Amino acid sequence: MITPSVRLKQLKESLDQKGFVRIIEAHSGISALVGEATRVQTGTGIVEYDGIWESSLTDSASKGFPDVELIGLESRIHTINEILEVTQKPLIVDGDTGRSPIEFEFLVRRLERMGVSAVIIEDKVFPKRNSLDTSANQTLEAPNLFAQKIQRGKSQVLTDDFMIIARIESLILKAGMDDALARARAYIATGADGIMIHSKMPTADEVLTFCKEYEKFDDRVPLVVVPSTYAQTTEDELAEAGVRVVIYANQLLRSAYPAMVEVAKSILLHSRAAEAEEHCMFIKDIINLIPERK
Known about the structure:
Blueprint: H1 4-8, H2 10-18, E1 21-26, H3 29-37, E2 39-42, E3 45-48, E4 51-54, H4 56-62, H5 73-86, E5 91-94, H6 101-114, E6 118-122, H7 143-154, E7 163-168, H8 177-189, E8 194-197, H9 205-214, E9 223-225, H10 235-240, E10 245-248, H11 251-270, H12 283-289
Helix pairs in contact: 3-5, 6-7, 7-8, 8-9
């Protein structure tokens, strides 16, 4: 059990205490339970996730919709509530483009009241297309307009704990490193509490270049990355480059889907479920994972 006010401040507290935090995606209550409970023993001690990412991609995909801002706010809020209901760790919400400034103001007010620790919005024109969709036409929003949206959102924040993080898509859309750095400066100047630099390259080279240039800024806020395409890059490498938050943004849904397909095929192939059992957890384990509340 945790109150919204206690959960709200956890992300900033973790950043202050640890310096570097790892976040795992969730798109439902049960995936959030996995992110909440998973721990492993390593040579340096017990390792776990520091928080949860409510992703628009995996939320949309889990409902059978494309990641093009089709899912309405109430549906997204329903998923967010599912996650908040069964977890205690801080939650970061993927706010897509934030839509219009007035819609973003409303979203900020609602998320902060719920106990969400941060929202990340990207500087593309509504309706956005998924950044890793190579077939999609995408357009960057003018930096001054996006900066104004951040400013409008910040005007609605009631505490020092809720974070608005600006996601920069310049590298995704081949606008160049100078554009990405200029946008970072503009967004920080208008109140962004964090900067997420996004890339779809197979290595982290351009992200690490951004990090090196970012270190020269007089005013800096926590730097966030999502290593979906450059997955071979280690957390130590990212932390050494100045990254403060790493988000594993889609792996839980991507791993669940192949297993579901194999089970569905196996039942059709064998006209029974016995052969599919090797891909399934025991029912008793599900019951133990989600205990009754007393």
